[in-house]
Amino acid sequence: MRALEILVRRRDKETLRQIFKVPTVSSLKWKDVESLILAMGGEIKEGSGSRIRFLLNGNIARFHRPHPSPDTDKGAIVSLREWLESIGVDYD
Questions:
Q1: Which is it for the CA torsion 64, 67, 42, 91, positive or negative?
Q2: CB under 8 A, 24+ apart: contacts of 79-82
């Protein structure tokens, strides 16, 4: 899926670019990640505590919402990138 073709907001495009950037960035806000998933037609399901599930293209990824900091850690960004790649999302 060429995600850039379906994303309208510049901020969502920038978030996707940051996710696919190597070396991995350390300043990505979690709210921007959630906004990106929704912009690509995905769903966000709340679990207990800080658990969260992203549903996109019939695929599920599980994460923990960062707290108390709003910044997404590098490990979560790498996991997010790998999940997006595995379901056919690219940045090209």
A1: negative
A2: 80/19, 80/33, 81/19, 81/20, 81/24
Residue ranges of the alpha helices (H) in the chain? Answer: 3-6, 10-20, 30-39, 74-86
Quote the DSSP letter at residue 90.
Answer: B
Residue pLDDT, tens place only, 3-38 = 556 666 889 999 999 999 999 998 899 999 999 999
**Domains in the chain, ordered, with CATH?**
3-86 (3.30.160)
Is the backbone peptide bond immediately before 23 cis, with ω within 30 degrees of 0?
A: yes
pTM score, two decimals? 0.88
